[in-house]
Design a protein that fits this description.
The structure is a homodimer.
Chain A (H helix, E strand, L loop, with lengths): L2 H17 L6 H7 L5 H5 L2 E6 L3 H9 L4 E6 L7 H7 L3 E4 L3 H13 L1 H7 L5 H6 L2
Parallel strand pairs in A: 1-2, 2-3
């Protein structure tokens, strides 16, 4: 599978989740993948529409996934991307307009869910988003 | 609550889980804590019997927990501890003998579960542990 095809699947999942009012992340993908042998993860590429948060970064490292393809990192970028590279993971950013548009819409329409998802401290942001 | 009392609670949970054949981690604690305001996590200390794996390290960062007290780090130590410090989290290692004894016993008796939990690559280790 090439990266464009992989990212298209990730985008489809993100869009489905958006339509249901949620936001799917990398941990959901790992959960859905079930309990696989360690070598399967190690030989996988993770496709994700947005830049991984700190927890997903940790999950990627725990599973020893060696390659991560990111749709876009302009809506959100945590320290995870750099840390993944530092730990030897290949990180590819596709700069995909479709992913960006979806994420921008999601953040605009559901700021409360978004802020909680990325662990923003401060009640005021949460309240504002409700 | 002082650190010894906090760690005693973590140890009790780890022992209960050991008796049930499992191994509880930091993510289980966060799950059991439910959905709390972001400021509650930020003002919390995480007590854990062993050194956090990469995924738990990521969870701690996502929740913006500022202080982590670790029972012992001689049985297991991932890169997480250093990364937490690098990101400004206060990390205290208690060097607790009771925690070490429990973990050593768990690793000896259930190597398969242990290796899978820390994401060890290589089927041979998994097979060996079964």
């Amino acid at each position: 599978m090439d990266d464009a095809a992989g990212l298209a699947i990730a985008f489809k999942e993100a869009k489905k989740s958006y339509e249901q009012g949620g936001i799917p992340g990398e941990t959901a993908t790992l959960l859905n993948a079930g309990r696989l042998p360690a070598s399967t993860y190690a030989n996988s590429t993770m496709y994700t529409t947005l830049s991984p948060c700190d927890m997903c970064t940790g999950a990627i490292l725990l599973y020893k996934i060696r390659r991560v393809v990111i749709g876009e990192n302009s809506t959100f970028k945590a320290a995870g991307e750099d840390y993944l590279r530092q730990r030897g993971v290949e990180v590819v950013v596709m700069d995909d307009q479709e992913c960006r548009t979806l994420m921008e819409r999601f953040v605009r329409e559901s700021p409360g869910v978004w802020w909680e998802d990325i662990g923003v401290v401060g009640e005021e942001k949460r309240e504002e988003g409700r």
